[in-house]
Protein: Oxidoreductase
Organism: Steroidobacter denitrificans
Amino acid sequence: MSNGRFGVGIVGLQPGRSWAALAHVPALRALASDFEIVGVANTSLVSAQAAAAACGLSRAFADVAELVACPDVDIVAVTVKVPHHFEIVKAAIAAGKHVYCEWPLGNGLAEAQQLATLATRKGVLGVIGTQARVAPEIEYLRRLIDEDFIGEVLSTTLLGWGEGWGATIPHKATYAYLLDRANGATMLTIPLGHTLAALRDVLGDIVELSAILANRRTAVFAADTGEMLPMTAHDQAVIGGRLENGAPLAIHYRGGMPRGEGLIWMINGAKGDIRVTGAQGHSQLTQLFLESIQEGGRAWCPLEVPGSYREDWPNDAVSGNVARVYARMAADLRSGSRTAPSFDDAVRLHELLAAIEAAAEHGQRVMLK
């Protein structure tokens, strides 16, 4: 750490189009008093040099091994595709580096558990990018529920669209890997996983569930190549269950482009209802809106998030939410607190997704507590 700032090495940066370029770089630059981007490692030195030049970074690393060995790197940001998370995070931990890894942590529960254990044993901080949890709307919603704004929560219903698992993908090289369930980057794990992390923060844990996972589309059209590509990832996820306070929940995510609102989350309370909406089912990267109906009302009324929840952050949801996670990470590293979403949190979310898959596979209700 130089000049009181944490040095960040980014793994996986493609200027103008990758998640690192759209979210991590602007988020870190918005937190310049806490972080400095040291450099980047990609699949080749040439690629890293091109990314560093385009983004104005001073250093390009030949590979991940060189990046994690660099003494100026305090934190490794892992922003590559899910199948590569395990080996990169493992290498960073072995080198004694703190890690910010994009969600999912691993390709399945077993990998996530192993990485969380390794981070604990090494004494490094592992942060997971479930950034919908720190969105201003979600944080304010949690406060409203905690302060009894709608009374006791009686039930909740969540409807969302997972755009990448519809009839068409725009670019084969970028999106085709999402179609293969074996890669661990599916509608269940990504948009629904992010949203479940936020839902649990607001309403508490899911203690029992049943589920149906279906492939209603088995082939997808790649617009740039004109090919039909096979899809084994589920494009329908239906989950019924019960929260720890006894309230039932119903969830349905479906693949494809939204027809109207892409996210509708309703919370029914004894004294009123709250509705959360967004343009897409990826709650972690879309602007969210809150509305309420108090008991006796007949029309939804907007709920304005207080300005204090948005101060000093990038205005857009993509980089703003990632910046909020990084800010918590910096505070945790300086004070020893644990406010950022952690690898242990990631394991618990992986456990929930594994329970959903088991319930669907066996056609049985699964108890989580």
